[in-house]
Every structure is written in C-alpha cells, then in structure tokens.
Amino acid sequence: MKWSGLVAGFVSWAALAQTPATLEAVRLHRPDAAALVLQELKACDDRKCPGSGRLALLAGTLVLSEGQAAEARQILEAHPAPPGLEAFHAYYRGQALFYSGDAEGAAEAFSLAVQTAPPSLESRARARLGEALLKADKPEKAAPVLETAASRTPSAELIYERALARSATGNAAGAREDLRTVALRYPTHPYADEAMARLEALTPPVRLTLDEHLRRARGLLDGGQAARALQELEAAQARKLVKGEPARSKVALARAQALFATGKVEEAQKALEQARKGPPGVAAEAALVTARRALRANENEKARELMAALDKSYPKQPAGDEGAFFAGWLDLQGQRFEDAVKAFAHFEQRYPRSRKRDEGMWFRALALLRLERYSEAREVLGRLVESFPRSKLVSQARYWQARSLELGGASADVTAPAYERVLSLAPESFYALLAGERLRAQGRTPPPVFPEPPRQITVPRPPELELAVALTQAGLFADAAEEVESRASRISSGQAMTFVHALLSLGEYGYAYNIAARHLWGRAFGERAPEALAAFYPKAFASAVEAAATRNEVEPYLVWAIMRRESAFRPEVASSADARGLMQIIPPTGSAIAEKLAEPRPNPADLFAPDLNIRYGAWYLSQLMKRFAHPVLAAAAYNAGPKATAKWAKEKGSLPLDLFVEEIPFRETRGYVKQVVADLYLYRAFYGGSAALPPLALTVPTPSVEGVNF
C-alpha cells in the first residue's frame, strides 16, 4: 500500500466528485472503498458532473483489484479518459481487458499507454504489452518488447516471459539461458518451478549441476522455505551428483542449515559433523554455524570458546576473521576488559584486511577506557581516525579522545577545544550533544551548532510534480507515489532545493527528506544552510503530532525524532516485521494500545493512517517516558522493548550515560538511541523558542517496575 501526502490541500469534493471520506477509504485500502467510489460514480453520472472520467478511472482500478475484470472493463470503456491521465486510463483498461480474456484488445490498450506514458508507468506498461502479445499468440511482436522490458527492469516474470518468446521465435539458446536464470536467481518464485519443468522437458533435457542445486537450496532457505531446500538437496542426491568428500560436505552443510530451520536439531548436528570433515572452507562455515547458534542462544561462554577455536583453526577463512572479532566482543560483554584488549589487538594484527577492523579498534579502545588506561585508549582512537577517516565511528572516536583527557584529569583548557572540535565536525550527531553537555558541565557555553533554525521557503511548484498531483486528485495514490519517486530519482543537485521545498509544501515530507539526503547533506551539515535543514528536520504532520503530544503529555520533538528514525516521514512504510506507518506500529502493539485506550481494535491497514499512527505512537512514548524517565531509555525501549531496556538499566545503570549507551549489546539499538536522542535535542533547539534547553541528564535513572511492558 502506498500513501501520498499530496492529497492534502489539493482534494476538492466539488471539483473532483470524490468526497474526502471516500478518498481516505481508498488511501487506507478499507474494505468498503470500492463500494463508496461506485456509489459516488453513479451519483456523478446521474448529474453529469465533469469529474466522471477521473472517478471512473478510480472505480475501475478498485474493481479490478478485487478481481472483477469484466466490470472494470465496462466502467473504463463507458467513460472518457480524464485529461492528462490518458496513459493511466489506457493501462488500467488494458489490465481489465487482459484479465477478462481479451489479450489482443489488452495489447492495443497497453500499446497506447506505452506511447504516452511517463517513465514511472512506461516500464510497467511495456512489460504488460509484451505479456499481452505473448498471450495473444503473437510471439514475433512480443519478443522485441520483452527483450527491452526484461533488460531494463529484470524480474522473474519478465525473464520467464522473454524465455517463452525466445523459444517461440527460434532462439532456443536464449530461452534456455532465461529459464536457467529464473530457476537459479528466483528459486522461491512460482515461475521458478515452471522454468525447471520446461528445462526438464527440453530435448535433450537441461539439468542442473550440483553447485546450481546448492544455489537453489540456499535461495530457498533464505526465502524461508527450508523444507523445499531439503527437497532440492535430495534431488541432487537422487541424481547421484554428490560424489566425493568435498561435495558431500557442501551438501551436508546446506542440509544442516535447512534442518535447523525446520527444528530437526539432532539431524542437523549429525549433518554438521559430516560438513566439518570437508575442505577448510566448508569445515570453517560448519563450525561458524555452531558458534553463531551458541551466540544467539546467549550461551556466551560456549560461544566465546567456539569463536576462538575458529580463529585458531581457520585464519585464512572468513569464518576465522569473524571468530576472532566475536571472541573479543564476547570478552567485552563479559566485562573481561584485559582479555578484550588482548583479543582485539590480536584481531587487528592477524586480520589487517578485515572489514571489521575499525570496529575492532573501537572496541579495543572501549575496553581500555573501562580499564582507565586513558592514554592507551587515545592512541588507539587516534589511529582509528587516521586509518579510517570515512568510518561512521570517527565522531565517537573524537568524542572519546576528548572524554579520555577529561577522565584522565586534564584541565578544561585542554579538553574544551577537543569537545568544540566534535561539535564543529559532527554537528548533527549524538556525540555533538554529549560534547555540548560536557562543556556546560565545565561552566562553558557551547558554540552554536547551527546559527539559524530550519527555514522553509516558498517556491513555484516544478512542472515535474503536476502529474503526481493529478494522480492524487484521482485517488491513484500508488501511482502518485511511483511518479514522485521516479521524478525524485532523476533530478540533479541543482534542482534539489526547489524540488525539496515544493514537496514540503505538498506534505510529501518523506520524499523531501530522501532527496535532501541524496543531494543536500553538505548544504545542511557543512554550510549549515537553514533551507537545507528544513528537509532533514521538518515539523511533519504538525497538527496531528502536536495534538497527540499535548493529549499524552509527551514532547512533540520526541515524536518527530522517533518518526524520523522509524520511517523517515513516509506513512506507507512497512517493515519485514510488519511494523507500519510513520511510527512503525506492529498490529499486536496497535491492538494492545487500543485496549489501553478503551478503543476498538484497529484494522491493521488503519495503522498506516497518519493520525491514528501518530496518536498511538505518542501514547506509547508517553508511557515509556513515565516508566523510564530518560529519553535514552525510552528510545531503547521503543526499539528493543521495555523488558530488555529494564534489564540493561539494572545491570549497567551505574555507568555514566555515555558509557551506558556504548555498552548496549544490540548494535541496532545503540545506533537507534544515538540518532533519536540527537534528533530530539536538535528539534528542541530548532523549534523550542527562546526557552533554555533542558540539559541531557548524564546519569541513568532507575526505571519504574510498573508501567508499560509491551
């Protein structure tokens, strides 16, 4: 489901025939959306209103999405294409014709769509044209269309259809290549099985090699189809492809991973034993599987032993690199700081080309800080900055260089310039916030990070956005979002500022942010330009955020900071964990919040609605702040859950705040907390008025035992 903020300010019931309530129902994919649109279309037809073509286009797409192709065809053919949207009318009419059985008519409609389609639609229309021509038994015409479509936007569907067209036009070698590509690159796609069947049916049959069977098995396993991965391996064995110890060990490793995924632990362990007898590369991967399982099970002592064994036995394999790194990391987590220093020094020396080398240096420095060996820590941090100037760890290395000076007893005259350097070089970072607080603790006023707050400017709407506006007015929100994305991907840096502010004025905060991140980073954080900052820190959905924040007694700035990290201001975002909308609420959490608020349980689709999503997110944040009493802990709980956060606060709450954050065990949560809290304080500074900013408490409070726990 897509959403476009363009609807705000551009939808007029009188002009467009659709009522705002109906457009809202369409936007949220509510079950009654099609019925509402059809009802309004009938009323529009009865009074011969000028917006009937646009309303019919919406009705046709909705009816088509419900599988009623014949009815959609009737609606679209009975009404003219709305001005400016002729290509979209032709495209959806082609869809209706195709699915109602008229492939030849569909091809004509898709051909018309291709002729006038914008780039956001052209590739889709061309792909459907090729499919329709193929279905109409016109492979000679379909082949060049599909050649172009599959080359531009390769997908399982297009490559498979190109294979059929190639086969029908005598290009047997090209067809075999395409079928093999579908079978190997897209093993979880339904067309992969059809491709396999067609390869088997060729004369002579095309059969996969052992390595290709293994590739399919890994793809199936990665796609969550472990049982089918096992079947793929069994097929290779049935064809007697598994010959010799190297082959047997490769299959055993893949089989073990699939068996673990299906819960057959004993069988998996036996397969791993066989894999460990294979060549070093396979044996190392088998040992790494065992070590990772211990790590995921929180069996840290066992995991540490297994990781160290990997390093010792397989120094020339990637698994050895990973083993050495995690041996040190587990020492650090276990508070064995001397051992961690030695382990990371060993890692740095033994694996000089490791991609984790900068992280290893950071964790070594952190262990030295915990041992109060401050000068040694500074030396390691200095090498990190010098060796990896582009590393994401540079700002924290600079902060801890300054902090180690202070912890080692250096005077404010020495430490203050080091803290000010952090503020200057990484103004948007968590470490700039910490550096500012350290300066205040010394009785100094931090230099202003951003001289001016974000400033939105008025610009003429670029003509490139007119089509997106028209699509939104028609209720074609998914097409509008595709159009904005297409335009955004093709603008130049010189156009970016105008485009960004036009999008902000239309309520498209997510796309504005995306373009700014691509083109305006230097303007915002190098030049500190207020008009560039406006896209990075917008007061998105301001009325909804401010109302929900007031109602729930939580800062609107915290809501915006969470929103920025969770969705980058895009209401249509859904995660792999089914978290939805601006504040990324998962349906079970939405239901739990509704119960607490004595409201009906929301339909999962409703969680994409900005007002509801913001209201639920603000309520949840208010409860987290009541329980944890610090934005660092509230942000950690929003990301990792209250139970984990309460555990960390209990175990390490005696540490200063900066060290506490560095020792959050989840990498994702560490990064999340740093960004959210930095953004919270920037939002406060930008929009909080003349009132003095509340300081960031540098100690960790004890969370309440009572309070929200989901």
Chart the SSEs and their pairings.
Blueprint: H1 13-16, H2 20-27, H3 33-46, H4 52-65, H5 69-77, H6 86-99, H7 103-116, H8 119-135, H9 139-152, H10 156-168, H11 172-185, H12 190-201, H13 210-222, H14 226-238, H15 244-261, H16 265-275, H17 280-296, H18 300-313, H19 318-333, H20 337-350, H21 357-370, H22 374-387, H23 394-407, H24 412-425, H25 430-441, H26 466-473, H27 477-488, H28 493-505, H29 509-519, H30 521-526, H31 530-536, H32 542-552, H33 556-567, H34 587-596, H35 610-628, H36 631-640, H37 642-652, H38 657-662, H39 667-687
Description:
- By secondary structure, the protein is an all-alpha fold.
- It is built from 39 helices and no strands.
- It is globular and about 80 Å long.
Largest sheet: none
List the total number of helices. 39
How many distinct beta strands? 0
Uncertain spans: 1-15
Which descriptor suits the 3D outline? globular
Features:
mainly alpha, globular, 710 residues, 39 helices, single chain, disordered N terminus
Briefly, what is this?
With 710 residues, the protein is an all-alpha fold. The protein has helices spanning 13-16, 20-27, 33-46, 52-65, 69-77, 86-99, 103-116, 119-135, 139-152, 156-168, 172-185, 190-201, 210-222, 226-238, 244-261, 265-275, 280-296, 300-313, 318-333, 337-350, 357-370, 374-387, 394-407, 412-425, 430-441, 466-473, 477-488, 493-505, 509-519, 521-526, 530-536, 542-552, 556-567, 587-596, 610-628, 631-640, 642-652, 657-662, 667-687. 50% of the residues are buried.
